[in-house]
Design brief:
By secondary structure, the chain is α/β, with parallel strands linked by helices. It folds into 2 domains: 67 residues; 249 residues, P-loop containing nucleotide triphosphate hydrolases (Rossmann fold). The chain is built from 11 helices and 10 strands. The chain starts with a helix and ends with a helix. The protein binds adenosine-5'-triphosphate and magnesium ion. The site of adenosine-5'-triphosphate has 10 residues, from helix 3.
Length: 338
Amino acid sequence: MEFLGGLGIATIIFYGGYQVIKGISTPGTFFSFLTALFMLYDPVRKLTNVNNTIQQGIAGAKRVFGIIDIVPDIRNSVTATDLPKISTGIDIQNVTFAYEETPVLKNINLSIKAGEVVAFVGMSGGGKTTLVNLIPRFYDVTEGRILIDGSDIREVTIESLRGQIAIVTQQTILFNDTVRNNIAYGNIEETEENIIQAAKAANAHDFIMNLPDGYDTVIGEQGAKLSGGERQRISIARALLKDAPILILDEATSSLDTEAEIEVQDALENLMKGRTTLIIAHRLSTIRNAHRIIVLANGEIMEEGTHESLMEKRREYFRFYTMQFKDEKRNGIENNRQ
Ligand SMILES: Nc1ncnc2c1ncn2[C@@H]1O[C@H](COP(=O)(O)OP(=O)(O)OP(=O)(O)O)[C@@H](O)[C@H]1O
Ligand SMILES: [Mg+2]
């Protein structure tokens, strides 16, 4: 391109100069033509770069479409029907699940009545998150089945199933968008009033108002500009706003300090009323009021019952509880010393 341009200019100077010498054209005409030509040179050269940009774009688009076109493993079955609002409960029948070869959940049987609050406790890696993730069909069971009101969840539409579930995941999922959009989570029809109310209930309103642009603050990729506890409160606000009949709380308050936790806990207790709730918490004090506590270890249900009945049994749960209680007491004493 550079070479062709140079050649063109040389030709024009030669031919134009020749015409001026011959008296066919004036020097004024020649120089204005030449100036115009030089001004044209740069834009034309830039035009050739456009092709580079287009090629880069095409290569990028191919990669993006490669991802968009992936067919998900979890899909609606062709005969799927809409799931009506949950009325009787969730039945987990002989469920075995493996991510790869070794089963993470082994032959789980559990019936949860509509409106019941069921807590899951147990050692890290025991399979608690895995079990609750099976309900919204983030994964399909390897063996057995899960029924909601008697319908296998693989036979209902994913939209109607997930539409009934509000979830606070163990790892908060936030987008590089405003606080408002993160709470509304794609629901553009949500009113400002409801969003603020949900944020207040999640004990998040005050810190949001202290952000540079309030509800319009963009929070960074994965909420990078917020603290762990703040992120969790935004996730909780999102779940509160969704107002769904089934609630899944996976360590929803684990990054909060005791004070914030007590306040958010109140909001969660209110939220849980009348809803079918599956709650996972390491801090056992937060689940004492659950209707039923399930102790999961190595993918199996070790024991289940209310806090009182499990304490009386003096087995796994009792051991967990007393261990934690001792820990808290020790920390308390150390804090006092400091
Ligand atoms: N996506 C995955 N792929 C493969 N293995 C996984 C995956 N997620 C979890 N696991 C494995 O499954 C087991 C159970 O994990 P899970 O997250 O259900 O435990 P958990 O009881 O929720 O633990 P924690 O209390 O630490 O959250 C673990 O041994 C873990 O290594
Ligand atoms: Mg977990």
